[in-house]
Amino acid sequence: MDKSIDELKREAAVSAVNTLQSGMVVGLGSGSTAYYAVVDLGMRLADGSLNGIVGIPTSEATAQLARQHHIPLGTLDEHPHVDITIDGADEIDPQLNLIKGLGHSLLREKIVVTSTERFIVISDDRKLVDHLGMIAPVPVEVIQFAKRPVSDYLQTLGCRPVLRLQDGQPRVTDEGNIILDCYFETIKDPFQLAAAIRKRPGVVEHGLFLRMAAEAYVASPTGVQHLTASVQ
Q1: 6, 34, 169, 176: which could join 29 in a potential S-S bond, CB 3.0 to 4.6 Å?
Q2: Is the pLDDT assigned to residue 191 strictly greater than 60?
C-alpha cells in the first residue's frame, strides 16, 4: 500500500530528530511537517532517550504544541546560540535553497535559523524543484501600514502579489504583520530578487531562505533521502 503524505512527513521528521543529542538547544519549526518533529522529540524526552533539550519555537502554535508534549522551552535572549533547527519548506532546489512561509511563520523561522549552527530541512519529495518559484509563491511579510505601496513595488519586480486572507480578512502574523504571496512566472536569480524585495520600506522579511540549509531529509515512497548542500 502506498504511504500517505502524512506518513512521509513523519518519516522525514523522525530522520532529522535522530540527529539530536542530549543537552542541545533545538529550533522547533512550524507547519505540518515540523509538527511531527516536535511530537517525536516530545516522545523521546518522555522515554528518556533524550534529555536536557531546550526548544526555541518559531511560532506561537509550535510553542503551544511543544508545551503539550512537555518540551522545555527557552528564548533567544536566554539561548542566543541554537545547535540545530529542524523545519519544513515549501520548495527545495538542488542547492537546498528554499521557499518557506506558507505556514505563516517565516519571520520567526528566519530569525531562529540565522541563530543556528546547523539547519536541517524536512519534507516529502513533492517539495523538490529544479528552481525556486515552480510551485510556491514567495511570501513577503509586510507591516499593515505599507500594504498598498509595497504591493505596488512588488509588482514592478515581476510578480502578482496576493494578500493572504483567513475567513475573508487579512491573516495577521504572530508579529502583527500581513503577508503578500508573490507569484512569479519564473525566478531567474533568487539572490537578486531577495535583495530587491528587501529594499522597499515596509517589507519586514521574505520567504527566500538562501544558503541557509545544511542538509535535508526528504521522504518518498521508496525511503528517506539525505541531501547535503553543495559548496556555493
Answers
A1: 34
A2: yes
- Based on the domain organization, do 72 and 97 belong to the same domain? yes
Q: What length is written for the chain?
A: 232
Which pLDDT score, from 0 to 100, does residue 1 have?
53
pTM of the predicted model as reported, rounded to 2 decimal places? 0.96
Pairing relation of β-strands 98-99 and 165-166? unpaired
CB 58 within 8 A of CB 109: yes
Q: Which three cell numbers stand for residue 6?
A: 502524512
Tell whether the model's pLDDT for residue 231 goes beyond 70: no
Nearest of 169, 151, 56 to residue 105 by alpha carbon:
56
* Cα–Cα nearest to 61, from 16, 28, 27, 98: 28
Give the range of the structural domain holding residue 147, as residue numbers without chain letter.
138-205
Averaged pLDDT for residues 35-52: 98
CB 85 within 8 A of CB 111: no
Structural domains of the chain, count:
2
Task: Tally helices (H) and strands (E) across the chain.
Answer: 6, 15
pLDDT score at 229? 86
**Is beta strand 208-209 parallel, antiparallel or unpaired with respect to 159-163?**
unpaired
Nearest to 216 by CA among 130, 122, 124: 122
Residue numbers annotated as active site: 109
